[in-house]
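Hello again, I could really use a second opinion on something today. I've been puzzling over a protein and I'd love to understand its fold better. I'm sending you its amino acid sequence along with the backbone structure tokens. It would help a lot if you went through both lines with me. I've dropped the whole record in just underneath, so have a look.
***
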Amino acid sequence: MAPSLDVRPNVRLPDADTLKAVLTHRFQAMTDYYRGVIVPTLSDEAQHAGESLKSMPRRIRLAMADGGRWLDNEGRDRMQAVLAKRPTLSIVCDFRNRLAALMEQRGAEQALKGLQQWIHEAEESGIRALQEFAQRLKGYTVAAA
């Protein structure tokens, strides 16, 4: 049976257990990020602009889950145009890309320092959804079987 993800409450700094959980459950972490940060930010941005979330093409909204890596050049250009008009959305997409890059790093010590820095910057961002995700991410741990 594969280990499952658990979240510890009130963790001040991410530690080796956090890093192990993030790396073991990277797809879950990125899904949590999309659902907990990008989607709410998309909704807030659309509401603030007086638009419907549906006014942004579905393909572009979904592409934000993976940094637009499956889009063709035209789609990437359209996504960049959307991000240029929405600075908060651009920031959370940048944080998403940096988190994904952290998960690809080699060397536990360097990766842990990077994760701690990422969480610190997310908590200081002033973006509520990003701050809440960072708080949750700090508590990630691999559940005991």
